[in-house]
């Protein structure tokens, strides 16, 4: 493995080195010191000037190895002779070359890890493909640096394992209908496993749940049959309510013949008032709808109610 103390290297978790240039301030100071040392050693005569020039050149070479700069979102894990010395940053800090080394540069921003479960069997033995993403953040730099070697890979593996556990203990219908609840359960499970590593799980989101095409067709037919069943039940309930209203109306008309005759006259009027149609009625029916007779029956009914 490459030396972690080199200012041109940036070690992420897992010991994967990435090139990182020296900070601008260290470059400027190093250039000035080396330039001044060269000028003193070459242009100025005398042993003292040459010694000062040599010292400046050495200091200029050591400045990039000594002066470090951590960004606002970064923390540097500094080891001294192999033991944890401090967590440095953000901003400028110094290390002792050879004695100290920056083992890791840890990013404390919110980060994401995508994971999936391919052909995972649900509780009702249905193979599903699920894609999800977890949002996490390092909240304890020291524990994250010392407790685990490669936390990025560990988070991905823990997330995938937890997702398979959730899928295996849930019905397919539950996974499809209660996706938000599944997100919350995954967040709690993954967060509980990664808390000892100094990592907080902010949220987990299931992006897609894929089921076999044959099962999709069967589920579509099932949903269509369920909708037809509900439609027929609603129609039957409506017919039942209408029938009950007709029974109530028949009882009322049975107790009051005058009301039945008035209703019949109203139906005839409603039929002819808009279309201007001519309706032929039998004489017996006209006599039964005689207004005078109807009024008489109505008055008789009112008198009977008054006596009671």
Architecture blueprint of SSEs:
Elements: E1 9-11, E2 17-19, H1 24-43, H2 47-66, E3 67-70, E4 74-80, E5 83-88, E6 91-94, E7 100-107, E8 111-121, E9 127-138, H3 141-147, H4 151-168, H5 172-177, H6 179-194, E10 199-210, H7 213-255, H8 257-272, H9 283-288, H10 291-307
Antiparallel strand pairs: 1-2, 3-6, 4-5, 4-7, 8-9, 9-10
What does this structure look like?
The chain has 308 residues and is of the alpha+beta class. The chain has ten helices and ten strands. The protein has helices at 24-43, 47-66, 141-147, 151-168, 172-177, 179-194, 213-255, 257-272, 283-288, 291-307; strands at residues 9-11, 17-19, 67-70, 74-80, 83-88, 91-94, 100-107, 111-121, 127-138, 199-210. Strands 5-4-7 form a three-stranded antiparallel beta sheet, with helices on one face. It has a three-stranded antiparallel beta sheet with strand order 8-9-10. Strands 1-2 form a two-stranded antiparallel sheet. The chain is elongated.
């Amino acid at each position: 493995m490459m030396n972690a103390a080199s200012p041109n290297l940036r070690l992420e978790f897992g010991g994967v080195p990435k090139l990182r240039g020296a900070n601008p301030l260290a470059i400027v100071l190093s250039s000035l010191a080396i330039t001044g040392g060269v000028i003193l050693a070459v242009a100025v005569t005398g042993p003292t000037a040459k010694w000062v020039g040599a010292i400046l050149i050495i200091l200029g070479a050591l400045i990039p190895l000594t002066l470090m700069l951590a960004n606002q979102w970064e923390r540097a894990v500094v080891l001294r002779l192999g033991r944890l010395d401090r967590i440095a940053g953000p901003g400028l800090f110094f290390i002792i070359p050879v004695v100290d080394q920056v083992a890791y540069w840890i990013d404390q921003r919110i980060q994401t890890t995508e994971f999936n479960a391919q052909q995972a069997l649900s509780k009702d033995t249905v193979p599903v493909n699920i894609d999800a993403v977890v949002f996490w953040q390092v909240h304890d730099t020291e524990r994250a640096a010392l407790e685990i070697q490669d936390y990025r890979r560990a988070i991905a593996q823990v997330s995938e394992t937890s997702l398979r556990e959730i899928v295996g203990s849930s019905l397919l219908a539950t996974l499809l209908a209660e996706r938000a609840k599944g997100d919350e359960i995954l967040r709690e499970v993954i967060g509980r496993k990664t808390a000892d590593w100094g990592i907080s799980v902010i949220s987990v989101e299931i992006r897609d749940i894929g089921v076999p095409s044959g099962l999709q067709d069967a589920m579509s037919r099932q949903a269509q049959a369920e909708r037809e069943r509900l439609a027929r039940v609603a129609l039957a309930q409506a017919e039942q309510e209408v029938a009950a209203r007709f029974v109530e109306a028949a009882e009322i008309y049975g107790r009051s013949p005058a009301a039945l005759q008035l209703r019949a006259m109203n139906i005839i009027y409603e039929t002819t008032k808009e279309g201007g149609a001519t309706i032929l009625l039998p004489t017996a029916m006209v006599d039964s709808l005689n207004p005078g007779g109807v009024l008489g029956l109505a008055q008789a009914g009112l008198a009977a109610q008054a006596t009671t």
